Amino acid sequence: MRTSSNLESHVTSLIQLVPAAALLVLMACAGLGSAAYAAEPGSGLQVTVLVYSGRPNPTFTIEDEAGVLDLHEALSAAEPYADFQRETVVPSILGYHGLRLQNLSGAEGLPKVILIYDGAIELRNGEKRFLADPGRRLERKLIEQAIERDLLDETTLRAIRQELGGKPDNVP
Questions:
Q1: What are phi and psi of 51, to 5 degrees?
Q2: What mean pLDDT is reported for the chain?
Q3: Is 145 in contact with 47 (CB distance < 8 Å)?
Q4: pLDDT reported for residue 166
Q5: What is the pLDDT of residues 67-100, one digit of tens each?
Q6: What are the domain boundaries of the chain?
Q7: Kind of pairing between the strands at 59-62 and 120-125
Q8: Which residue has the higher pLDDT, 48 or 85?
Q9: Residues near 138 by Cβ (< 8 Å), separated by ≥ 6?
Q10: Which residues, in sequence order, are CB contacts of 136 under 8 Å at separation 6+?
């Protein structure tokens, strides 16, 4: 009887400790996650090809100064899209529906977010502005960079090429 009473006492003590131990583990994990995130500041322009639903989209980063300057020049040369009628350039559809660029490093002269699709560019930096991308030149150039980095499988690439009306320029 005495052994059973000691065993019950130990089991009760352990059961009472489990929630506290679980809380400590969660707090430690949350602390580690925050420290790791804070230690990795973003840099450059993160480009995401918006193509999948339910799985991660292909993403790459433009970190070189020349790439950032190319984008800045392309945006500077773009004309305002005066009669843009939708809320955003990126449609809510399945399959390829554009590109999202995030200015992770705060590159001067570029907005925080740039969306590109179907001949239109959306600049988000507090307010929205729309620019024209005639011939989808900027969109094609960024898709070419994703292809050069081998981020798109054949099926995805075929769908994007069909959406763009053929092969992007300079792509085999």
A1: -140, -30
A2: 77
A3: yes
A4: 65
A5: 888 998 999 999 999 888 889 999 988 899 999 9
A6: 1-40, 45-164
A7: unpaired
A8: 48
A9: 71, 74, 75, 78, 116, 121
A10: 118, 119, 164
